[in-house]
């Protein structure tokens, strides 16, 4: 079965370094008590490069040819995707407190601007962008500066949007508005390209997002694991929102398996809406292909098998017993396929996975280095 390469619409690649470090916690505790301190201690351009080589390998081997990845120390991330030969839209994060690579938050817009300009036009597969971490960790001034920089530099900007109920309550307490209406009041909704998660949104907010052409990226497995809630994806589609699908980072999922994510999205929507037709197999596959691509500004580049599109292709072994018989390729992919069925992968016409082996990364060496680092991280 030949299909378009899958497009991971929301990811934090280097977080594979913290995979399994802290499970079974709610988002606020997980993020502020474990992840932010671990990142402050361990994340540098060198470690994001290492982590991203592992993340890119995991994704390419699983048929993911393009990713929207947002993190800190993005020069290391961009170099790794370039070396792996994977298509990537890479948002440098901004946040109001000191972060890896940004010890002085007052310099964040300058640092991120330098990153964006350094990577523009360097590699046809790498698109720099900007990621305002969230409405609860970025002040109105930070959000305005981020959107202003995106406009000046001619890049896209993204954010985590209404991921948890606690986030929405916190923003309401501070600004007397929901995150979406707060962005609208600041005049920033029209320039925002992508909101990740979108779990706690009412009908009026969905209509506002559709009107302003803000895409949403669904991360069902991360939402399940952190108990963030169930996004009403059926409502996104009926409101005309561009809907993508993403894994989120490996510390909250804990894998970067888009075939698994398609299956989860298709099944979970039926439960969320109490309707088996809420999200069809074809719709879930579409979200993981051209839906995610459109959300990150690549809707006419990848995510579809059509003349004029880049040759980002995946070939699945169709002869496995669990794929037999196959009446409909979307149903086969959503409900039966496994990432281990992926055999060949091409990005922009270049073969990067051959017979289930990655050609562009020395994977045994990368895994050995990650294991070594994991031992140090575990010791604190
Ligand atoms: Zn995220």
TrEMBL record:
Domain (Amidohydrolase-related): residue spans on this chain: 1-352
A GO term for molecular function: metal ion binding
InterPro entries hit by this protein: Amidohydro-rel (IPR006680), Metal-dep_hydrolase_composite (IPR011059), Metal_Hydrolase (IPR032466), MTA/SAH_deaminase (IPR050287)
CDD domains from the UniProt entry: ATZ_TRZ_like
Pfam families to which the protein is assigned, alphabetical: Amidohydro_1
Xref: Gene3D superfamilies: Metal-dependent hydrolases, Urease, subunit C, domain 1
Lineage of the organism: Bacteria, Pseudomonadati, Thermodesulfobacteriota, Desulfarculia, Desulfarculales
Keywords from the UniProt entry: Hydrolase, Metal-binding, Zinc
Keyword match Metal-binding: yes
Keyword RNA-binding: no
Top-rank lineage group of the source organism: Bacteria
Protein name: S-adenosylhomocysteine deaminase
């Amino acid at each position: 079965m030949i299909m378009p390469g899958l497009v991971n619409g929301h990811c934090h690649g280097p977080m594979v370094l913290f995979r399994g470090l802290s499970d079974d916690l709610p988002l606020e505790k997980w993020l502020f008590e474990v992840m932010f301190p671990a990142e402050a201690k361990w994340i540098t351009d060198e470690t994001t490069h290492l982590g991203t080589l592992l993340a890119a390998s995991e994704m390419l081997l699983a048929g993911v040819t393009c990713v929207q990845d947002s993190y800190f120390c993005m020069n290391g991330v961009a170099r790794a995707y370039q070396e792996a030969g994977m298509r990537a839209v890479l948002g440098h994060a901004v946040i109001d407190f000191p972060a890896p690579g940004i010890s002085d938050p007052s310099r964040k817009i300058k640092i991120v601007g330098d990153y964006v300009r350094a990577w523009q036009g360097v590699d046809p597969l790498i698109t720099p962008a900007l990621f305002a971490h969230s409405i609860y960790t970025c002040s109105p001034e930070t959000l305005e500066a981020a959107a202003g920089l995106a406009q000046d530099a001619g890049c896209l900007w993204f954010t985590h949007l209404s991921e948890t109920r606690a986030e929405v309550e916190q923003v309401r307490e501070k600004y007397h508005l929901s995150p979406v209406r707060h962005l609208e009041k600041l005049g920033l909704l029209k320039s925002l390209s992508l909101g990740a998660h979108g779990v706690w949104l009412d009908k009026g907010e969905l209509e506002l997002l559709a009107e302003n052409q803000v895409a949403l990226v669904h991360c069902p497995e991360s939402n399940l694991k952190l108990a963030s809630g169930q996004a009403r994806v059926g409502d996104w589609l009926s409101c005309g929102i561009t809907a993508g699908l993403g894994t989120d980072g490996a510390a909250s999922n804990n894998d970067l398996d888009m075939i698994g994510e398609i299956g989860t999205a298709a099944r979970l929507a039926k439960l969320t809406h109490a309707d088996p037709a809420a999200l069809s197999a074809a719709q879930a596959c579409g979200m993981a292909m051209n839906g995610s691509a459109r959300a990150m500004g690549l809707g006419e580049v990848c995510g579809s098998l059509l003349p004029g599109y880049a040759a980002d292709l995946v070939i699945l072994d169709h002869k496995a017993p669990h794929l037999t018989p196959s009446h409909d390729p979307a149903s086969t992919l959503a409900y039966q396929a496994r990432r281990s069925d992926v055999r060949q992968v091409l990005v922009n016409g270049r073969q990067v996975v051959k017979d289930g082996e990655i050609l562009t990364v020395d994977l045994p060496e990368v895994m050995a280095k990650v294991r070594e680092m994991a031992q140090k991280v575990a010791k604190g």
